[in-house]
Amino acid sequence: MTAHDYEYALEIVDLTIDVDKHGERVPAVKGLTIRVRPGESHGLVGESGSGKSLTLRAVMGLFSKGAHYRSGLIRICGHEVLGPDAPNYDSSMRGKGVSMVFQEPAVALNPIMKVGWQIVDALREQEHLSRAAARSRAIELMTSVGITNPEDRFDSYPFELSGGMRQRVMIAAAIACKPKVLLCDEPTTALDVTIQRQILDIFRSVADSGTALLYVTHDLAVVSQLCETLSVIYHGSIVEDGTLRDVFDTPQDDYTRQLLSSTPYLKGAMRAATNTGAIDDKTSEKGD
Ligand SMILES: Nc1ncnc2c1ncn2[C@@H]1O[C@H](COP(=O)(O)OP(=O)(O)O)[C@@H](O)[C@H]1O
Ligand SMILES: [Mg+2]
């Protein structure tokens, strides 16, 4: 707790979110609690429809039609953004406090604006930079997320880039203000394995720089490559949480065991990694 006056960069405590279903309001996220420390990378794993996106969007204060906050609270760096004291969501932490990488770049990127200027926009929203300073900072950011020839790509439109490049642009915009918390909603699902690994490396270095990551996926293999801790969500409730090693080696819950057995190669890989200490070494790269 030395460098911060809070222990957790992100706290979600006993969060319940209702959704409209067949004319009724029913809970879809049920008393969910997740805490993530600065620099920690936490996986939220569960099947489709289990409430992962609703949870992340609540942290950003994005409730689409049919989704309603009921109870619980969310704090970013100790500051309540949703809860009894902030029932309508306090957006003051967006940008420098919390930002989000969506599954589909199409949701986050403006199709008719050059990508470089979209990153500049994200920067200038929070930091008072001149246009020229913002442009050169955007080019630095593009380089840091592995965009080659950033000077040329700066003036590309989203449709002129590959899916992997668009995803990198979105990540660059999301990390532009060095958020304390970065939320990722299955951001590599549509990408091939090589690009996925490169993108995971970017997230790992974002966490290494002190950002707390909450990384949503249905894929345990991704969690094993990126995260130190995880929560397993089932029908809106957390059924298990802990360190990667604890959950993978001694799962307590039936659903977790089922998830693990549906990715059979994982346990052996994990055991090998924990025995050699490789999973504590964030820079370690799995072979091709
Ligand atoms: N805006 C909404 N209106 C009605 N139902 C919703 C809404 N958003 C999500 N849901 C429902 O809530 C459940 C959880 O959704 P979601 O969080 O998107 O799941 P996941 O991201 O884990 O796949 C699903 O049954 C989904 O149909
Ligand atoms: Mg989802």
UniProtKB/TrEMBL annotation:
SUPFAM superfamilies: P-loop containing nucleoside triphosphate hydrolases. Belongs to the ABC transporter superfamily. It is found in: Cell membrane. Residues 10-260 form the ABC transporter domain. It comes from the Bacteria. It comes from Bifidobacterium vansinderenii. This is Peptide ABC transporter ATP-binding protein. Keywords: ATP-binding, Cell membrane, Membrane, Nucleotide-binding, Transport.
